[in-house]
Design goal:
The chain contains eight helices and 21 strands. It is an alpha/beta fold.
């Protein structure tokens, strides 16, 4: 989101038609913070390298998304999240005739409902620029060699980079991120964009420094970070990403391990340029999701709400397994709270993405009918109560 970005187009020539349409919508609705032309042209170029899916946080009125859509190849889908309902509505109208473009309304974390992405543009959350803005996880949200764009940095010629006289911690987060190879791209005298590429593991290498893929090794946790865990393998650095810590849902690596703890892990791959050994603790655990999938699809289960998020609720449906019920599927204005029981149907299971999608069932809404009531009255009150509780 660029300050006065919309006005920056006053002298811009030869804009793509969809960008012109989004720009007109931004001006009509008084939205001043569209991405600048320099940013848009970079997005247009990067979109051309995406194979199947592009994501964006912070749609605004759709100018940046229009640049992406115009640059994307045929068949590539685009998903963008905008927290402001009116702007989301305006942007959705801009792309009404583009079936491959989807505008979601809500917290930026709704971008996690899709993915992994070939290209992910962070412009409305997930950038780590504010203290309360949890950074997006590129190891989970990007495909191998996928790219992430974090916009709107000021030029910095010194190291460490400064912002308003203090160390620019957001910029350092992305420049030093172990899952990324990140470059600073100067677009104008007052504008720098970070473009990170998810590191390719040395997949052709099966042995390195007496390690080999599939080998089980023992090490000691040397550092616990938000994005993963470093392990000392007798002088060689090992690294475990958050998804590889456990087959259970993990909010922070500190829930699983601590500094000084001895761990046993499987060798997944090698990053020769660091140099580093990629490890997995989860690979040595039994897979409860695979067991659940054998007869879980289509089942009706009564589970407990474990977490309420802006886009829905997570429900525990088995030991170590949680699924998401999206807000769009929750009937009525009241959202279940943590600890509430909910009857759900397992509608989708994806082992690769480790995701379970749930739909609420009528059992979640229907009240219990007392046996001593009049039979006719039972039916009337049953239907009346069910309609009321389900928002009919």
């Amino acid at each position: 989101m660029a300050i006065s970005g919309t006005d920056a187009y006053d002298k811009a020539l030869h804009l793509p038609p969809l960008v012109e349409r989004a720009l007109a919508a931004a001006r009509a609705h008084g939205f001043a913070h569209s991405c600048r032309p320099e940013q848009g042209r970079l997005l247009h170029a990067l979109a051309g390298g995406a194979d199947s899916l592009i994501g964006e946080t912070g749609t605004g009125c759709g100018v940046g998304l229009a640049w992406l859509a115009e640059g994307a190849r045929e068949g590539v889908r685009l998903v963008s999240v905008e927290r402001d309902p009116e702007r989301a509505r305006v942007a959705a109208e801009v792309f009404a005739d583009r079936s491959g473009v989807e505008v979601l309304c809500g917290d930026w974390r709704r971008i996690e409902e899709r993915g992994p992405y070939d290209l992910l543009v962070l412009d409305g959350g997930g950038t780590a620029k504010a203290e309360d803005d949890t950074p997006a996880d590129p190891a989970r949200l990007l495909t191998h060699a996928g790219r992430i764009v974090i916009d709107d940095f000021t030029p910095a010629t010194d190291w460490l980079p400064l912002y308003e006289g203090e160390v620019d911690r957001a910029r350092l987060h992305w420049l030093r991120h172990p899952a990324l190879e990140t470059l600073q791209v100067p677009l104008a005298k007052d504008l720098v964009t970070l473009v990170g590429t998810r590191r390719r593991l040395a997949g052709t290498e099966t042995t390195w420094r007496d390690f080999e893929q599939g080998q089980v090794v023992r090490g000691v946790v040397s550092s616990v970070q938000d994005f993963g865990v470093f392990v000392d393998l007798d002088g060689t650095e090992g690294f475990v990403t958050v998804p590889e810590l456990s087959r259970h849902r993990v909010e922070h690596p500190g829930e699983v391990v601590h500094v000084g703890q001895e761990v046993v892990a499987e060798v997944l791959a090698f990053e020769l340029f660091r140099p580093q050994v990629r490890l997995s603790l989860a690979a040595l655990d039994p897979d409860p999701l695979a067991e659940f999938a054998r007869d879980g699809l289509g089942r009706v289960i009564r589970g407990t709400v474990t977490k309420v998020v802006p886009f829905g609720v997570f429900v525990r449906v088995a030991e170590g397994i949680e699924g998401l019920v999206h807000n769009d599927d929750l009937a009525g204005p009241a959202v279940p709270g943590t600890g509430d029981e909910l009857a759900v149907t397992v509608s989708d299971i994806n082992l690769l993405r480790r995701r379970v999608v749930l739909k609420p069932t009528m059992q979640a809404c229907a009240p219990t009918v007392k046996e001593d009531q009049n039979p006719g009255l039972q039916l009337k009150e049953h239907v009346k109560s069910a309609r009321s509780s389900c928002g009919w």
